[in-house]
Design a protein that fits this description.
The structure is a homodimer of 209-residue chains.
Chain A lengths: L11 H25 L6 H8 L3 H7 L3 H15 L17 H16 L2 H16 L1 H28 L9 H4 L1 H13 L6 H13 L5
Helix pairs in contact in A: 1-2, 1-4, 1-6, 2-3, 4-6, 4-7, 5-9, 5-10, 6-7, 9-10
InterPro entries (chains A, B): Homeodomain-like_sf, HTH-type_TetR-like_transc_reg, HTH_TetR, Tet_transcr_reg_TetR-rel_C_sf, TetR_C
Pfam family, one (chains A, B): TetR_N
Keywords (chains A, B): DNA-binding, Transcription, Transcription regulation
Chain lengths: 209, 209
């Protein structure tokens, strides 16, 4: 992740060409890793599929892991799902349950989106067995998303909607953990109804009062 | 998974030899997949490491996936962790919180056990990208464990400790999902204190009353 293409334009035309190459490289990287898996994806393969020289890729990224991570960040930024809210944080209408349901439903849609699913599975699986890649994945992609939950839950606690002693960093895992578990391991269908029920259970607990 | 070795003994000596071979094959399979990953583990490699002929493996199992799954089932059966309770179900002392904490703490210890960790990561990661293997993993290994939670939570609901409307199959994911998520993605340390807090949050919810 040395110098991103858009940061070194010489002329408007060169900028446009760079942006086109960058987009082609990202698309090729995501398609390849989704089809062939992480291990069988190579910088050579990405370059061939993107119609650029291998050196074009190495000029901007040191490794296939770096290209893929940037491609994912770009995908997450363009997606219509939960990550689209990153800039502004999670919705805060004052109704915590409704806001969390909206976010989890969007996440369900994103995880069920075929364009998103195959490459995300490939990168996540590789992070499960490769601690170094996993740490970068968490630091750059996952943790910034989880922080949005921390912020929303902290605001809810201040507003008196969440119990005073609750740690938002642990509480958020009640929403994100089960959803990801169900998706990754395909134990049961990932639906809006499930997202809603998860929010109810996590907010109100399962114990009798 | 054709005929298991212990099922076709001719003499006591042959049975002992079969059992020794089976143990050596399982140990070799788990060690290899933990070291080299699923894709680079082969029946040939397992046979060489176990000191048996390739045909010995193919006599008992149709593929490397089948050997690995049986090796995992065997490991889970021998482990001191949560799966050891499979036969008798989860503990039921009448104190749901205490019982769930005991089970989740044992699961934490098991997930942190190096002997268990590398092969489990390798198989789980492969199941994430290979739906067919993932389905067998869930059906034979994961779902039987999850059913123990269903039984314990159903009993707790009947005893009036869980709210009447709660679906145990969804509720169990509040415990298992976050724990697995934290372990797989290595977001934060997996500790007993975390297991306890998870149980408290899931039982009592995070919303203010």
């Amino acid at each position: 992740m040395s110098e991103p293409p858009a940061a070194s334009p010489r002329t408007p035309d060169a900028t446009r060409r760079s942006e086109r190459s960058r987009r082609a490289i990202f698309d090729a990287a995501l398609a390849l890793v989704g089809e062939a898996g992480y291990a069988r994806t190579t910088v050579e393969g990405i370059a061939a599929r993107a119609g650029v020289g291998k050196q074009t890729i190495y000029r901007w990224w040191p490794s296939k892991g770096a290209v893929l991570l940037d491609a994912f960040l770009d995908l997450a930024g363009r997606s219509g799902g939960a990550e689209a809210e990153t800039a502004g944080g999670l919705p805060d209408t004052g109704d915590l349950a409704a806001d969390l349901k909206a976010v989890l439903r969007a996440t369900v849609d994103e995880l069920n989106d075929p364009r998103f699913e195959a490459p995300t599975r490939a990168l996540t699986a590789e992070g499960v067995v490769d601690p170094e890649l996993g740490a970068r994945f968490v630091e750059r992609l996952l943790e910034p998303q989880l922080q949005l939950y921390v912020e929303r839950l902290t605001a809810a606690r201040e507003a008196g909607h969440v119990r005073p002693g609750v740690d938002p960093r642990i509480a958020l895992e009640l929403f994100v953990g089960p959803l990801t578990h169900r998706w990754l391991l395909r134990t049961r269908p990932l639906t809006h109804a499930y997202a809603d029920e998860l929010v109810e259970y996590a907010l109100h607990g399962i114990a009798a009062r």
